Amino acid sequence: MIDQKGGDKVFIARQPIFNEQLEVYGYELLFRLTHHSNQFGGVSSRGATAAVITGLFESGIENIVEDKLAFINFDEIFIHSNAIELIKPDRLVVEMLEKIKINDILLERLKIIKEKGYKIALDDFEEDYQSYPLTSLADIIKYDLMITPLETIKNDVILAIKQGKILLAEKVETQNEFRQAKNMGFSLFQGYFFSKPIIAGYSASKSLTKNQYFLLISELKKEDPSYNVLADLIQQDVTLAYQVVRMASVRAKHDFVTSIQFALTYIGLNKIERWLNILMLHDLVKDKPLELMKISIIRSRFAESLARRANMTVSSQHEASMMGLFSVLDGILDQSMDDALKGISIPPSIYDALLKERGFLYPIYQLMLAYEKGDWKTTSRVSQELNIEEHILYHDYRKAIQWANEVLLSIS
Fold it and tell me: Which residues form the EAL domain (predicted)?
């Protein structure tokens, strides 16, 4: 959690921004001061922005946005602060809030910022494109499709593209909206369209892969798992067998890994189960944005940490981890969540959280999603219900991002 002078702290979450190839272009950072019920709690956005900028500088911006761009909101007051320069121009997009007060001093400041190499974005743009004073200074224009439907901005889009503007579609919730915006000329996209299932695109090969992995998971869930059964299943896939042996070799050091059974004893069943869960999603997500895989891994670690903070049992923490990991399985498999979880031997608590919106894991699921989406009201309410101190959430979230990056590196 980032501290501010005066004792306030700031929540920070992130939302991915994709290019046309569904590669992550950057992350919009969502934040608010704690101990308040609304977005900024009666405190100007300047305070929250200042805390975010200084916190990113102190802790390392790469720990939250990796090697991508950070999109951060600025108001007409904080835009004049030299704190902006704590973050290099090639890592920061300056987002001007939609209700910003425009005057000559602001226009001159934005010109200076552009000269220093920073990109400027207009957030939730719904003004008249030709007459709005900031349009000429903007590099990126963000249209919220809930506020400005695509059919209402066709002429503005044509003009903006002619002038070399980068257009970003926000609140893109369906694949159809993504395709429409892309066809119109938008090149950046933000929303949860990438995590929604496309039932028509369901692949039989994905089903086969899923079944193979869940046979392994089902065996691991037994009271007395058989190393021989596990080894036989693993040996059916040469790539999987190779990865198991490679992972065991790191732990075996000078000993030879003479069999899959031997490798499993070195790794340990608990670690094998967690690794297989992640590896399964890695294999299933091949024709999906990598960010979908990354989100599942972040959620896995974040949910586990939330369960631990809520003083749940160790077994419940493991279930929370699997719940977080499988929370995007519908989008990966292009099935409903109900179909995706059929035939899988997983604890009822995971079914209840993902399908029934009930059970002891459901508050963990709620808090995980609320924090990720920047729903700070729900974040505060559920964290209080779970008796989790709010100030620890950003720490655990940042650690989850770091762990996800390490995991993806190890299995790539």
Answer: 1-211
Q: What is the pTM of this model?
A: 0.80
Residue 398: partners with Cβ closer than 8 Å, 6 or more residues away: 12, 59, 63, 64
Q: 217: which 2 tokens?
A: 């998971």
How confident is the model over 346-358, as pLDDT tens digits? 788 999 999 999 9
pLDDT tens column, 108-127? 999 999 999 999 999 999 99
Q: State the Cα–Cα distance between residues 252 and 262, nearest whole angstrom.
A: 10
Packing angle of the helix pair 260-267, 269-284 (nearest 10 deg):
110
Tokens 């911006």, residue located = 61
CA distances from 42 to 301, 347, 378 (A): 33, 43, 18
Residue in this structure with the two tokens 């987002």, named with its chain if needed? 95
- Choose which CATH entry (3.20.20.450, 3.30.70.3270, 3.30.450.20, 3.40.50.2000) describes domain 2-195: 3.20.20.450
